Amino acid sequence: MGSRTASVAAALANAAVLAAVPAALVYQAGPPHPDLPSASTVQAIIRQPLTSGFILALAHAGVWSIWALLAATTAVRGYRRLAGALRWLPTLHLPGPLQHLTAVMLGATAVSAATGGMPAHAATSPAAASDDTTHPATGSAGHARNLAVQATTSSPEAPATYTVARGDTLSAIAQRCLGDNDRWPEIWKLNKGRHWAHVSGRTAFTDPDRIFPGWVLTLPPNAEPPATTPPSKPPTPQTPRPPTISPTAAPSTAAPTTPPASGPATTPTGGPAATTSSPALGDDGVFIPPETTAAASRSSASAHPALPTTSPSPATARAPDTAAPDTADDTSSHSPGWVEVAGGAMGAGLAAALVYAVTTVWKRRRHRYRPTPITSPVLRDADLTPPLAALTRLRQGVRRAAPHLLDRSPDREPTVGEYIAADVKPPLPPIGPNGADLAGVGALPVTAGLGLDGPAALNAARALLVATLTTGSADDPDTRGRVIIPASTLATLLGVSAVDLNPMHRLTIAPTFAAALALLEEEIIRRSRILADQEAATVFALREEWTFGEPLPQLLLIADVPDDSWHPRLATAIRLGKNVDVGTALIGVWPEGSTLTVAADGTTEGGDGERVAVLDTAATTDILTMLAEVHGDAEPPTTAPVPAPAWTEPATLTRQCGDDPSAEPENLASAAHSADARPEPDAAAADAAEAATDKRVRARVLGEPAILGTDGKPVRGLRAKSLELFVYLVVHRAGASLNDIMEAIWPDVTVSRAADRLSTCVANLRTTIRSVAHTGTGSSNDAPKIEPVINTGGHYHLDPNLLHVDWWTVQDAYAQVATAADDTARLAHLRTAIAATRGGLADGCGYEWIDTDREHARRRLVKIYAQAASLHAESDPAAALALYDTARALDPLSDELARRAMRTAARLGDAAGVRERLTALRCELDDAGIDIDPDTEGLATRLLRDLAHR
């Protein structure tokens, strides 16, 4: 009832002022006279301006003007409330200067009226005296929670409400307010179908996975903050609070004037959990997965595969009860929603964003790749080096803490034409979390000035730098954070690695602190002018209302705390930058704002006790090198990887991989069969015919992996982990140590349990292969015992004398092509490899260790098809075109393959084929957030022009 009483008191105060001022003026000086002064009166005023009559008249005119402004503002606010109830009424806006002036007047009236009618302890909070002109993202976090408890317990007859903040989901709200995230359906039932007119551009609440900042959700009667809520503490002006639970009869209908604060939610262990959203990963950022931001903020995604549209935030990840059975018993030592890696720890949201960033790296490398003739049995391509050493560990941590961040696709966004033509504007995807959210300091916003102190202050600053440069994507440009940092601070954070750091357009390195501060001030001025032109109060409001405006992502200054002489100027810049989303993070104690004391594990003192991300120098340098390639600021590595033996795959640290490529075609051999211009039997029949002469057990890992029976069909009884072990051993043809196997397949399981599971899977694999090998030979008890999986000195490898694997056939044929004497022999070996191919490596299997190996296999297959097509180009262009199209199916992002296919189609006189392949390439690159090569479009134009002239 407190907020309703405050609103009524403010309304009565406004009404009293509106009535009392004109009455007093008329009583004292009579009604105003609109007559213009005569010429003699004007001359007299010029000769003697400071007369008592003139000063009195000027004072009367000023008071009347202020009263008229107050009356107009009150009328507009009343109209807006009416428009909130009657949605067909248009929205009115006062000019920007009048809004600022009247806001001061109305705010003073409302605060004074509310303070008089509230208890003393409540009046001390800025939030307590606010009506619907103030947003619930201001004030002290602890004090706000304390007020929420008091209001809930003192007004049991009024339903409790919750104002949605950026990064929230229904399950997170249920965990925070009801103590159980599985109670989110209760909140959904209470609010289903409601509409909040004050939230610009939002539709009715019809999807529990899509909620937006500013919505005021009604909670069940027994809602209250969880038992782990920290005790209240006195409010500080520099510390905005998260959304509060306030009991009201109905949601507010006034537009918020400041953006919702977002930050990690408290959990029983003090660590934040990860948000949900869509990853959409673009050309200069990560989209964070769609689930990461689709739930509550305009994410992920990305960083997605096209991360994650929606970008992840560590605010609302589920506890590790979602872990897979293989890892559930080993997660007790981890904080919920947090991922531990070599060199630090971070929230699941940031980890997911990095995963999608690596996906973009692989896509960019595939886009730039130009297949060359096969001249060596091994691949020596430098860009097959894993982009990030810790990627497999990051993905495994996200799978354990918040798997939905990696498994959801981005929602479709309306096109410009659809949006403009729609009578009722469709909702736009929510904005994703910024770098402060991903780093875990969203509850103490950097826009108010944040100091980082303690043993891990440098580690926290490094993580904040990485998180800011990781955010955003082509689908979410408002979250492509930028950083300004003095050269001395960067050298402190990265050491000697700062010298070799690639230039990045989102990272501005200033020579001195003075230069960095000057750049910050220039951007504040530029953004302030944009706000004035659009008559908006803050950047956050501008993003909601200015659909086609310039993206204004968060700009962050990271620096050491300067000398005392700089403090006034820096404090002024921080204050002016708050409304334009310009923030500052200082290494050291910052007396003008909030300071966090960061421990080595990321736990903090001085805030709300949340945990923040921490990274050491090596991990930060590794990530920044990868991000430079993600943003298009750097080329892939140029040093060739170490060659491997001629008959096996190059040695790779498979735990250092990172891509989740899209599903490959089910049958890549079909185009090759048509290229040979002869009918082919179906795959099962061909396998059965070959099996009749080759007594080895046949297996495939290209396409859907399986061990095949004598009829060419997959056998039953093989465990999922046993099949993964089989694929791993096929890829590591020379064998793999038990330690490497267990680290790749069971990284989060205890040593003893991993050894037991490995033993079980090996036994299951051996039994399955033996059952196929003994089929048709009588009783398996009488047959000699075979060992398909051989253990030699702590290494497992498959026996090639007992197994016929399609990938080994491709590898052997590839090596023979490199040493063939002429094109006829090369083409024969290429046909052998093509006949064995049924898809990409382990299609549809999301093994955590397989990404780099999958790229090796993709690259080899592309080279095989491209070289076969080039050998057919002169004699049979139609066969060459079919082979190029098959290679394009393997890698639809390749400009070079598209160009070769268009040239071949033009040779056949197929203009429609040229256009079709150009259009397909554009669509694939648009989805990946990559720009098409201008040479490709120029080639298509020339080919079509030449065909038209023919």
UniProtKB/TrEMBL annotation:
Keyword set includes Transferase: no
TM spans (from-to): 52-72, 341-362
Gene3D superfamilies the record matches: LysM domain, Tetratricopeptide repeat domain, Winged helix-like DNA-binding domain superfamily/Winged helix DNA-binding domain
Transmembrane helix among keywords: yes
Start-end of Pro residues biased regions: 222-245
Database matches in PANTHER family: TRANSCRIPTIONAL REGULATOR REDD-RELATED
Protein name as annotated: LysM peptidoglycan-binding domain-containing protein
Annotated source species: Micromonospora sp. HUAS YX12
